Amino acid sequence: MLAVILLILQRQKLTAVFGSLPPQQTVNASQTVTPDLGRHYQLNYEQWLDVLKQEAKAATEKNPEHLSILAGDSISLWFPTELLPENRYWLNQAISGENSTGLLKRLEIFDSTKPEIIFVMIGINDLIRGDSDEVILENQRQIIKYLRKAHPTAQIVVQSILPHGAEEATWEGRDKLLLLPNSRIRQLNQQLQRIAARRGAKYLDLYSLFTNQQGNLRPELSTDGLHLSPAGYLVWRTALQIYTQSGT
């Protein structure tokens, strides 16, 4: 139990933890999103699952109004707490390196919560490791199906897969990104949009907000051509604000 508590405390330093939102803070592009916590604090996948279960349990017990869930990979994981839209409670259920298969298998973790909206962004890690579009799309269908059944009153929002920085990327897996055309991601997003419509989910187009004239991830919105900078999260925040305030 002590180990789980320590992991939860660590999670509070890493990402948006369920609970009251902090005062709004100004973030500029020179600030670092991902804190350097050292090797001692690196969590493995099973440890992350334990943290997510405890946070979901806390959300279930408190049962707040306007609960919103972020489900996805490291891009969602590192969403700065202070940049998440206000007047909502946020439960971050993201894990670094996650793919669509992994997310589908762990959706049950937050079954007992009562979210108003569930935002899903997943797929870039599938593409990087070489999974086919068919696998990704089928997993997305199953994710939507599962969430609609487990949370019948919630809005399920499929967010587009973001582009990468191509030749300008500095991420350690740059060679893998160069094998993945952003045109393929754009086409995959078009199919995701159709799937969302057919399955009773919403679709939030973030892709077009993050691309430059070459169709790549805008350098000022990223730290390494894959992950987002504070400026990138500000763009995402604005999209979430518009969505949640519009009552779509």
What does this structure look like?
The protein is 44% helix and 10% strand. It has helices at 2-14, 45-62, 74-77, 100-106, 124-128, 133-150, 174-178, 182-198, 207-210, 230-246, and strands spanning 67-72, 89-94, 117-121, 155-159, 202-204. It is α/β, with parallel strands linked by helices and 248 residues long. It has a single domain, classed as 3-Layer(aba) Sandwich (Rossmann fold). The termini are far apart.
Based on the structure, what is the oligomeric state of the protein chains? Answer: single chain
What do we call the CATH topology?
Rossmann fold
List how many beta strands DSSP finds: 5
From the alpha carbons, calculate the radius of gyration and give it in angstroms. Answer: 17 Å
Mean pLDDT: 87
CATH architecture: 3-Layer(aba) Sandwich
pLDDT < 50 runs, ≥5 residues: 1-10, 12-41
The proportion of strand residues reads: 5-15%
* H/E element sequence: HHEHEHEHHEHHEHH
Category by helix and strand content: alpha/beta
Q: State the major sheet.
A: 5 strands, parallel
The CA-CA distance between the termini, in Å, is 41 Å
Give the total of domains: 1
